[in-house]
Design goal:
Layout (H helix, E strand, L loop, with lengths): L1 H15 L10 H9 L3 H10 L1 E5 L2 E6 L2 E6 L6 H10 L19 E5 L5 H8 L4 E5 L3 H10 L1 H5 L3 E4 L2 E2 L4 E8 L7 E2 L2 H4 L4 E9 L1 H7 L7 E4 L5 H6 L2 H7 L2 E5 L6 H12 L4 E10 L2 E10 L3
Parallel strand pairs: 4-5, 4-11, 5-6, 7-10, 11-12
Antiparallel strand pairs: 1-2, 2-3, 8-9, 8-10, 12-14, 13-14
Helix pairs in contact: 1-2, 3-4
GO molecular function: methyltransferase activity
Pfam families: Methyltransf_21
Keywords: Methyltransferase, Transferase
């Protein structure tokens, strides 16, 4: 409790002293973070969750939505991810009212993880969702979760990593928490119950070219710190298709400013909303950047 209060006070102070990392953040975000109360909402999700252990998977059902999760991982993490995607009042929410997935939209889900955003996009009528996820165990689960949608060509799974170059990279995969996979730091592999593998990195522009994608309406991004590189590697796609962009930026304190600056320089007519604040590793920073077109 004390730690939580101190973090909230730290955010208020950072905004008062005009911390450069929060230069695009609004006082309404400070107020939200100061008075937020997520606990009871997450408790409701946890109470409604039903878990079965089937053939090396956890089959997780929440409010009629079923996903599969690695049985080597902590199934309790699913509650947080469900909350982030389906509860509009949280600071990590992707499809804010100004930019929602519409019927027939083509969606790129970069950092698909458990697949809840893909599920929500399909419920909203998306015509096709490209799931881009490098984690071995999670990819196996996604094939199970979206088996019927893959057969119907509404979903395709791509076990690669999106960035600013087209090359092979070493990727750190974690058994117990697949959500923290990232381009590897070798010193961590033995210490954190994980392993390193080679993964192909591609840019959004190359991904669209290779997969003959001639329409992109919505790009969701949550890739553990690689978000700036993804946006840089998506320049042609952004200029050509002007998709809505929902980008998690909290992994590095400077990411929000770097992405806002890059998008503004493209001059493609986006409205930009920087949303949420989190005190992460003792440094307050924004949570999301949303880029959309005024109605």
């Amino acid at each position: 409790m004390i730690a939580s209060v101190m973090k909230r006070l730290h955010m208020i102070r950072a905004k008062l002293v005009h911390d450069p990392y929060l230069k695009h953040s609004l006082w309404r975000d400070v107020a939200h973070e100061t008075f937020k109360c997520y606990g009871y909402r997450k408790a409701g999700i946890k109470n409604s969750m039903r878990v079965d252990h089937i053939d090396g998977f956890f089959k997780v059902g929440i409010e009629g939505r079923v996903i599969y999760w690695p049985d080597t991982a902590d199934v309790a993490r699913v509650v947080d991810m469900y909350f982030e995607v389906f509860n509009q009042g949280n600071n990590h929410y992707f499809d804010i009212p100004e930019m929602v997935v519409k019927t027939g939209d083509v969606v790129m889900d970069c950092g698909t993880c458990e697949g809840y955003f893909t599920r929500k996009a399909l419920e909203s009528g998306a015509g096709k969702v490209y799931c881009i996820e490098p984690g071995t165990a999670i990819v196996r689960c996604l094939y199970k979760t979206f088996e019927s949608e893959i057969q119907g060509n509404r979903v395709s799974i791509h076990p690669c990593l999106i960035g600013d170059e087209n090359k092979s990279v070493e990727f750190y995969d974690n058994f117990s928490d697949p959500t923290i996979g990232q381009i590897s730091r070798k010193s961590e592999a033995g210490r954190h119950n994980g392993y390193i593998k080679n993964v192909q990195m591609v840019t959004v522009d190359e991904f669209c070219l290779t997969n003959t994608i001639d329409k992109v309406d919505f790009i969701k991004v949550d890739i553990e710190g690689g978000e700036v590189g993804l946006v840089v590697g998506a320049e042609k796609t952004i200029k050509r298709h002007r998709p809505n962009l929902a980008i998690a930026v909290y992994h590095a304190a400077e990411n929000a400013n770097l992405i806002v600056d890059f998008i503004e320089k493209l001059s493609v007519g986006y409205e930009i909303r920087v949303k949420g604040i989190v005190d992460f590793a003792g440094v307050p920073r924004p949570v999301m950047v949303h880029c959309y077109h005024a109605k």
